[in-house]
Amino acid sequence: MAEQNSVAKQNDAKNGHSQNEPQRTETKAGSVISIILIAALAAILLGTVIYSLDRRNTMYSKVAALNNELTYAEAENVRLQAELESKISAKNVEDYAENVLGMKKIDSSQIKYIEIQTDDVVSIPEQDDGLIAKIKKFFDRCVEYFRG
């Protein structure tokens, strides 16, 4: 029996096995689990970074599109302001009055001057008294009536 134990130990020594084998498997299993967890954590962090970069690029694209719209709107505003100024110029108003409304320029035969004969006197018409003034006058007349 002692021979069998010694032969078994020699075979185990040749094959690299020993009696401490269960501890190595637990250690190897713990190492594998920690490596898997670290790899999963790294993958999650990488995914988060990629997602944030994608969101940033999306926002930059939106900002660029809105800046293009703003530039277009400003150019359109300048164009419309110039068009408005050209339409309300004195020459265009005069053309519209003559061609569309049928108006004509005034000539000297249509101008008549009138002379007003007045003195340099300003006359102010009498103002109508208010309600309170009328009541006061009424009481003044009553007092004069009773005094005799």
Account of the 3D structure:
By secondary structure, this protein is mainly alpha-helical. Helices cover 73% and strands 0% of the residues. The protein is elongated, with a radius of gyration of 55 Å. The mean pLDDT is 82.
The biggest sheet amounts to: none
What's the total number of strands? 0
Tally of separate helices: 4
Distance between the termini: 164 Å
Structural class: mainly alpha
Relevant terms:
0% strand, mainly alpha, 148 residues
Topology:
Elements: H1 2-15, H2 21-87, H3 90-99, H4 131-147
Describe what is shown at a glance.
The chain is mostly helical and 148 residues long.
